[in-house]
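Justification of computing resources. Each target in the renewal requires a structure prediction run like the one illustrated here; the chain below, 461 residues long, is used simply to show the kind of job we budget for.
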Amino acid sequence: MTLKTKLISAIVAFVMVASLMMVGILASPTITMQMGGNVSFTATDLQVTISDGVLANGKLEDSANKMQGVKIDAYNDGATELATWTNLNLSFNESGEDMTITFTITNNSTVDDVQATVTVNQGTAVNATVSVTTPTTSPTIISKNNGSQQFVVTFHVNDRNNPASITGFEIDIDLEKYVPPYERVDAEGNPDENGDYLYFGYYPQSLIAEGVEVDTGTQDSRGYYLGNDGEYYAQAEDGNYYKVERLRWRILDDTYGDGTALIVCDVIVDQVAYQSNIDSSETYATDEGGTILIDNEAIVGEGVDSNHQVYANNYKHSELRAWLNNEFYNSFSENEKSSIVQTVVDNSLASTGGNGGRYVCENTNDYVFALSHADIYNTEYGFTSGDGDPKKAFMVTDYAEANGAYVYSSGSYIGTGYSWLRSPRDEPNRRYACVVRSGYAGRNLVDYDTYGAVPALQIRL
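Resulting structure tokens:
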């Protein structure tokens, strides 16, 4: 298992610990973190900020703004700007079960009589002390001892001519073994770090096995029931119970260069209408009370008419999108959610294969989304550019079928069904959206209630 780390307490949760580091040091904040990768801290105007950060799990995005304004309680003799000149960079590199930390201190000051010291404590042992004078960069490397999981970095800036004038703060670093919330596998489900599939998340799928009994008196926080086989079960609309199992996903693209991948679920997970609430003219989306939805922020022609009334096949306001980003997204654990990237979803005319016309909506920001018409003809995603493609046919789970999803019971695509794409279709009655079935893309009415959802998302690997 590799060593990785993650930033805890949403970066902004700092634990302020009062401690006397040496004579002259006042109460100094302690920053407790779990991290990996590279992080640069800058002491500026008695504040600690992250000026640059790239963690192994990508959790330091936009962190510079989040950490600004954290004041260091420190002594300053008034003669020297002690906290405006030094950058401290910590680089973390893994090697087997050991962690190597490189400290680089850069003095940018024009003041010549200032020196910086970094002291690293691992447990009770002092591993290294680096002193820096103007202007220099001084790295040092400390190898992590097996069995020790904590480092305390004490950063001091002081005037050499006045040793009592010290600016200081601590950074507590806890190293932990990071277990990814997914398992990468090959087509047969065998572990493979370069496999084209992932097991990620859980959802009800298979009909309960004969002889398994469920404790129907108690539900867990997810609403599932425990079976006497140690597995969890969900009750479907047909009254039967279905086993909660790992979901398998296809990797469509992992070449973004940022450690993320586009993945799509390998099955139709549940029955969902594209938009079940529509008005009597079958033209517009409504709320459950029948009132036509209005989107004043949308540009006329982007899924709304001249009165900003929302068309029935507007993906932004669709029941499908709401279900994917609420009910389905919330089926993931918090750890799993931390690996899901909020994505700008392309809802342009091009994404519809040119068939969306005036019904295309603006792009959306989603954690989970449906594939587009263009996606399933994208050969770079492993699909063919034509029809009759088995990869364009998705199997229906027992649970989805029990909730009303249609399943082909004969022919070459037996066991597969209809799944929604996010793309609208420009049809006369204004309520068509694209579906994928039997190896090709078609279109149907948005309020059909026998079609299902095939989720897609972008994940941090």
